[in-house]
Write a structure and sequence with these properties.
It comes from Rhizobium mesoamericanum STM3625. Pfam families: Sigma70_r4 (PF04545). This is RNA polymerase sigma-70 region 4 domain-containing protein. One of its GO terms (molecular function) is DNA-binding transcription factor activity. The structure is a single chain. The protein is mainly alpha-helical. The protein has one domain. Helix content is 68%, strand content 0%. The protein is elongated. 4% of the residues are buried.
Amino acid sequence: MTASKASRNVVIERKRREGATLAALAEEFGVSQSTISQILAKQEKNRRAIKRRLEAPLRRVTKPYGGQ
């Protein structure tokens, strides 16, 4: 994904949270409503994955094999 698409997706997500409809966003950005839905779903999936990783317990660290 290019930087311009990433920034576009952030704007789409912000406007959706502010109450914009899928149709309005699709018209503004020149994509279909289903594309807007897919963008929002992917952003949410990524957000959940990051949250899950941050909340996961730390892995056990062991000494290197043969180390003292």
